[in-house]
Amino acid sequence: MIDPVVVGLSRLQFAATAMYHFLFVPLTIGLAWMLVIMESCYVMTGNTIWKDMTRFWGKLFGINFAMGVTTGLTLEFQFGTNWAYYSHYVGDIFGAPLAIEGMLAFFLESTMVGLFFFGWDRLSKVGHLAVTTLMAMGANMSAFLILVANAWMQEPVGSFFNPVTMRMELSDFTTILLSHTAQAKFIHTIAACYCTGAMFVLGVSAWHLLKGKNLEFAKRSFRVAAIFGLFSTISVIILGDESGVGITRVQPSKLAAIEAMWETEPAPASLNLIASINEKEERNDWAISVPYVGGLITTRSTTQQVPGIHDIRAENRQRIERGVQAVLALEAMRQNPQDEAARARFAEHQQDMGYGLLLKRYTNDLTQATPAMMDQAAHDSVPRVEPLFWGFRAMVGLGGMMLLLTILAVWHCTRNTFMQQRWLLRWAFWGIPAPWLAAQLGWFVAEYGRQPWTVFGMLPTHMSTSSVSAGTLWASLAGFVIFYTVLLVVEIYLMLKYARMGPAALQADHT
């Protein structure tokens, strides 16, 4: 039997390292295009203050980029160390975008980062701007390929299960690249990264304005960040809504948990703003709801129903029964490849095989699976409601706060009164952590909401781990947390040090 402690620790370790890594990634991607904007202003106007701004924010970009690379390297290794069966099962598919990312996007970005820092006196203005643009493109390309791989785990398209090799195999790479889930996830995540970069520049600039330091530098940076942040935040909200439409189609269990929708309502469904969730009795003790809004947002129609948790579990219970037939037929085919009856039975139920594998958590011999086991597996097929419900609403609340902040910042920038609005500057400064918190919550909702699957509908999480001991996982988890915490402290120290110095940090390079 699979050790649930090993599964839990493997999940915890990957979640910890991924969340540490994603503290650095959003700022790298978000700052990259802001550097392009600032350097473009320098090339067009010849005003050296724009060059100094590009170099200053570029210094902070470089510190953050180095930390992001350091924390990101271990993530890919964990697919082999902690998730060996997953890597074996889907390596032909999942490995393709990761390999392209490493060989193309990461090397492009890294090369351009070197030229960005050391090419100021060696390249023409336009040449250096081209380098900065390629650096930003590399960062976005890298993110795209990583998110394509993750999106395939959410919606496994362009692939098929080969009963001979017992692995998922690639059938159409273009379909994987262009799937609705991949495109929506990429654009939504990238917009969130842009928002992070904008909020960081906005907050640091506000601090300088509050202190009355480096005013010309800070005013320009504040204006750029306010406008860039407004468009980015609007994009995050709009594209997040588009992601919700995709979730309705491919992961109704996640949507039902996010909305605490226990029962299927007549279309269009209402939207629960807040609710007292009673998971033990599988109902909401009370809820404040807005009629029709939930269905209109998630289905874009007035007639399409949004299934509730109870109906989803009932359907999954039937899929588990059919999945058992697929798994048993597959085992018969492996014992006798000429068994045509088993082959026909497998073809009939293959699409539900993953649901049959959910029972492997309770018994290795599916012929011994009891109705109680099937009921429990069906119950497990929907993630816990309360963490997703409140995690999603906290994320949306932070997004709304950032939207309001950037609207007010742009409004006062257009009237040239933002320097007198000290409350706005303080809000911008203390709002610096908001996009990071929202991004972490977004990833939690996306990944926790996919449970109990590693590859949705195909491979359960409890079957994906390596054959390692709990002691090994405890030791490596402790090591990662300690090491990454040290890196985070170093990052915060360096970022605070140079952010406080402002443009004077550029002079420190030559002293």
Structural description of this entry:
The chain is mainly α and 511 residues long. The chain has 19 helices and six strands. It has helices at residues 4-21, 25-45, 48-81, 84-118, 125-154, 173-178, 180-211, 215-250, 252-258, 293-299, 309-335, 340-349, 353-357, 371-380, 385-414, 422-430, 434-448, 470-501, 504-508; strands at residues 159-162, 167-170, 271-278, 283-290, 453-455, 459-460. A two-stranded antiparallel ribbon has the order 1-2. It has a two-stranded antiparallel ribbon with strand order 3-4. Strands 5-6 form a two-stranded antiparallel sheet. Strand 1 (159-162) and strand 2 (167-170) form a beta hairpin. The chain is globular.
Q: Which descriptor suits the 3D outline?
A: globular
Low-confidence stretches: none
- Overall mean pLDDT stands at 90
Total of DSSP H or I helical runs spanning 4+ residues: 19
Give the assembly state of these chains.
Answer: single chain
Over all CA atoms, what is the radius of gyration? 25 Å
In what range is the share of β-strand residues? 5-15%
Query: In whole angstroms, how far apart are the ends?
Result: 63 Å
Helix content: over 70%
Coarse structural class: mainly alpha
Order of helices and strands: HHHHHEEHHHHEEHHHHHHHHEEHH
Largest sheet: 2 strands, antiparallel
